[in-house]
Write a structure and sequence with these properties.
Order of helices and strands: HHHHHHH
Number of domains: 2
Number of helices: 7
Shape: rod-shaped
Radius of gyration: 32 Å
Number of strands: 0
Structural class: mainly alpha
Strand content: under 5%
Distance between the termini: 81 Å
Amino acid sequence: MMLGACAGLLWATWKTAVLIINRISPQPVKSEALITALLSSTAAALIALDAVIPLVIRYIRNTLRRMRTAQHHRDLEPLWREVHQALPEIELTPVELGEEDFGVYHRMIEIRDANLALRVHFHPKVRSWVIEATHHQNITGDELEVIIEASVIAGAIEAHAAGVRYHTDPSTAETPHIGTGDITTERDRLIRVSQAFAHDPVVQQMRERVREDANSTIVGGR
């Protein structure tokens, strides 16, 4: 807009100067029409761009936001799908979405609700099993905790399917990850847990181990 205003001011100045020169000089100003057209079209184009550019930027931002949201949905899908199949009652009532898409946040809440509901099925030895399995892989810190969390959930789904409870009191089970309160940090961590849940071989190993243990518990109980 500022550039368009400057071009318009130059155009007005040029036209004034041409008018004065034509009054005092017998010779007309050369290239008057060309310069006039150049300045006027430049001013009009810049002012038009000022109106269009914000719309283009807003469209690009909204498109990128929708793409990021869709990607977050896909990243959470493996974990959400299985806990939802195991506990369909965790699904929240859909709401009308405004400018922000709360669908991802719904899935995050549903996953955490499922974690709490599955606590009685958390196998008490999964943490030690994962630490043992990753001992020679130099997996430590938060990366290890993500694998443990994914393994605990995967095992709990298997125990839930088998109808086996490892805890009568949920407070004695493995404590689910306590979020930082920052929704973006929590989302990114759950995405990592979901990816480990779907693809990490240690998690698949723990899942099989809990499944076998749950089945043997059922057989032994009989």
